């Protein structure tokens, strides 16, 4: 198949390109290269690359492709709050425009990288796809509204599907440490302290970044009627954790590290434990390969081998928000 991947140079995108190429698919990558120079290790590149903003993608760019996998975004809650207007312009307006152009170009399947953050401050635990959404951030709101507007385009020739991914973690050649699991492990290696910015009680569903990439491939290969115009949580029922439980797992890997509650964000209102029964029912051949334990063990080995230390934790290279602050003008100019 011919697959068009946006955000192919990102934390999840590099895994996705590798999986697609290994399966024999022809891949076009599209990325603004906003985080150029933030690489952790080498990774394979697609046969064709477009270094451009998704808002500049044309029907001609998309012609001949069977599937669009749309990952590109201002990619989490803190970054979205840095400039909410730009978040809406890229994540919402850009995504809807891309879907319109994909449909006009004859692309049959459009897979959107959503987020379980749409549940925000959950009204209950064990949230399912049909439960009320309670977004707390510009990022989460952009994801919900994109689902709504793209769903209006669905028809017999155009199948969108929305992967509501759990919170990503784990090793990637485009490493990020601004994600809760990676951040706690990074702080332990850098300072021998597991620094928790909240009170540690909020729930988070977790999924390895490579398993998210695997889910995209599974959604592409699934029968049309299985995923057509559906929002589906992506993760595993057994991988819901409180932040303090993640800290305990870091402590098992680095027993000398002390847990420290910094109080930077106080009582974090984002609290959601999520169910993944629909995914298990509709795509029974897919199961995450990593657990929190195995994913953290792999990342720990990689970070130790790289000599991860305070300069890495405090620098811009692996913290997207710090890099984005310096490069926001590149996004504005690309519009």
Give a structural overview:
This protein is an alpha/beta fold. 40% of the residues lie in helices and 19% in strands. The chain is built from 13 helices and twelve strands. The strands form three sheets. A seven-stranded parallel beta sheet has the order 3-2-1-4-5-6-10, sandwiched between helices. A three-stranded mixed beta sheet has the order 7-9-11. It has a two-stranded parallel sheet with strand order 8-12. Helix 5 links the parallel strand 5 and strand 6. The radius of gyration is 19 Å and the shape is globular. The model has no long low-confidence stretch (mean pLDDT 92).
In short:
The chain is α/β, with parallel strands linked by helices. It contains 13 helices and twelve strands.
Beta strand count: 12
- Read across the widest sheet, the strand sequence of neighbours is 3-2-1-4-5-6-10
The main sheet comes to: 7 strands, parallel
What sort of overall outline do the alpha carbons produce when their principal axes are compared? globular
What is the count of DSSP helices, taking H or I runs of 4+ residues? 13
Mean pLDDT: 92
* Gap from first CA to last CA: 30 Å
Report the radius of gyration as a whole number of Å. Answer: 19 Å
State the order of secondary-structure elements, H for helix, E for strand.
EHEEHEHHEHEEHEEHHEEHEHHHH
Percent of residues in helices comes to 40-55%
How much of the sequence lies in strands comes to: 15-25%
Structural class: alpha/beta
Unreliable spans are none
